[in-house]
């Protein structure tokens, strides 16, 4: 897991071919997905954002979580998207956590969490779950109901 910045341009950008080289040359572009341009470096993303604003082609800037392994949940499509190589999650609206407990109770808790699941991946041998921040209290309740331990991750320090 690492982080990147997604600059979303208006769909009109595909009609203006001279912009594509400006958005990709001499920049740390990870990849372009439709009208999303994903940069490793925040400075590059801000420069591209400024350029697109001048041309009235800017939509929004998203801090992204970049993942290369895992599986999507029922709530994925409102909270992320897939590129050719990576999966991207919108960092600002998600929370990540670890869930541990006795085998049977843990499995039951995971079934309940699946209803709100955006994405599940593995890091250093542990399953990491991503849900929308608004479901944090619900997830805490599920963990308590099944006597599981819940540990939220600080995405700013990962």
The largest beta-sheet arranges its strands as 2-3-1-4-7-6
Q: List the domain count as a whole number.
A: 2
Structural class: alpha+beta
Alpha-carbon distance between the two ends? 8 Å
The CATH class of the largest domain turns out to be Alpha Beta
Major sheet: 6 strands, antiparallel
Helix amount, in percent? 25-40%
Compute the number of helices.
4
Give the averaged pLDDT, no decimals. Answer: 94
Question: What would you note in describing this structure?
Answer:
- The chain is elongated and about 60 Å long.
- The protein has 2 domains: 2-67, Alpha-Beta Plaits, CATH 3.30.70; 93-153, Alpha-Beta Plaits (2-Layer Sandwich), CATH 3.30.70.980.
- Helix content is 25%, strand content 39%.
- Helix 3 packs antiparallel against helix 4.
- The strands form 2 sheets. It has a 6-stranded antiparallel sheet, covered by helices on one side.
- A hairpin with a 2-residue loop joins strand 2 (29-33) and strand 3.
- The chain is α+β, with helices and mostly antiparallel strands and 158 residues long.
- The N and C termini lie close together (8 Å).
Keywords, separated by commas or semicolons:
alpha+beta; 6-stranded antiparallel β-sheet; 25% helix; 2 domains; 5-stranded antiparallel β-sheet; 4 helices; Alpha-Beta Plaits; elongated; 158 residues
Question: Topology of this structure?
Answer:
Elements: E1 2-9, H1 19-24, E2 29-33, E3 36-39, H2 42-54, E4 58-67, E5 71-72, E6 80-82, E7 87-90, E8 94-100, H3 103-113, E9 117-123, E10 126-132, H4 136-145, E11 149-153
Antiparallel strand pairs: 1-3, 1-4, 2-3, 4-7, 5-9, 6-7, 8-10, 8-11, 9-10
């Amino acid at each position: 897991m690492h982080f990147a910045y997604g600059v979303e341009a208006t769909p009109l950008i595909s009609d203006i071919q001279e912009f594509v080289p400006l958005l990709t040359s001499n920049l740390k572009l990870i990849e372009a997905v439709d009208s999303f341009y994903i940069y490793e470096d925040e400075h590059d993303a801000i420069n591209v954002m400024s350029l697109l604003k001048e041309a009235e082609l800017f939509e929004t800037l998203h801090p992204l979580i970049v993942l290369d392994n895992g599986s999507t949940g029922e709530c994925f499509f409102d909270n992320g998207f897939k590129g050719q190589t990576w999966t991207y999650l919108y960092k600002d609206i998600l929370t990540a956590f670890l869930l541990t407990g006795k085998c049977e109770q843990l499995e039951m808790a995971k079934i309940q969490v699946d209803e709100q699941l955006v994405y599940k991946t593995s890091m250093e041998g542990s399953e990491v779950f991503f849900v929308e921040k608004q479901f944090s209290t619900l997830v805490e309740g599920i963990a308590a109901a099944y006597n599981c331990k819940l540990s939220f991750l600080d995405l700013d320090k990962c």
